[in-house]
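Internal tracking record. Fields below are filled automatically when a chain is submitted to the structure queue. Please do not edit lines marked as system-generated. If the sequence contains nonstandard residues, flag them in the REMARKS field before resubmitting.
Queue: standard
Priority: normal
Entity type: single polypeptide chain
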Amino acid sequence: MQRNKRHKQRGAALISALLIVSVMSVVAVSIMDTIRFSARLSTNIADRDQARLYAVAAEELAKSTIRQAWRADSTRNPVLDQWTQAPLTFPIPEGLIEGGVRDGANCFNLNSVVSSGEGGFRYDEVGAARFEHFLEQFGVPTAESALIAAELADWIDTDDQASFGGAEDDYYLGLDSPYRTGGQFMADPSELRALRTMTPSLYETIRPLICTRPTNVLHPINLNTLQDWQAPLLAAYLGQTYDTAIALQLLTERPVGGYGAVSDFFEQAIREPETFTEVARERFALISKAYEVAATIRFRDATVAVTSTLQISDAGDITTLSRRYGPIE
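SYSTEM-GENERATED OUTPUT FOLLOWS
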């Protein structure tokens, strides 16, 4: 009997030992997996951080190139204009930078639909009408374009009174997912999607031709770098008597080497140029004061896409207005 008891105790001890070994094995495997995962995660974070540093370096390289071209010729930059149209590929250790510099002047500044006054911003009739005309170039009915322009101005202005056809906080706060208007300059064109009448399809259609700048000034567009697909923008700048078809014809008839002076554009291409005031002519230029650096950095297993908006002053100083990480548009 004692013997059977001892056998039973030995069997229980063996089972306990096997159980302990099994548990320890599972724990050991789990610890090893955690260590491997942590090491891999740390490596990925380090690679991504390095890729972001390369993105900043690409931006600085673009700044340097633009600054040199600007100092060489601050009235017209045919060399820089060509450079902005060519994609660039730059090898880096264990990776590659792809992208280039785009002309950032040829876009409609959404913040130009308001004017500055005492106490903040208010609806600007001329700016709103110009944005309406811009939308109409994409087939938006006049009534709908007027609503969107009014809603855009109400989104930016600093009062709580809705303009005719517009919308203020009282509308947006009544939605299932309520939010308020900005009450300040738009920081990114994506804010346009929050407007009451804006649709996703219309936003995607006009997105390549709109931008936001920290000012309500309608900055000059570059007559020598405008491309055919940007004809709706040119039509909006020229005014109500011009449409996309006419603007496209003007771009087609542009001299091969570009215009030597803004006055040449009005004398050679525009009918009744005397109807354009000096202020209206200042909306056109042969040099860009804004550029976009778009780059995709591939470093080891990490991929980072960045788009930076650069602004250059009359003195040649370059400022980064924005830097956005994510898919390049």
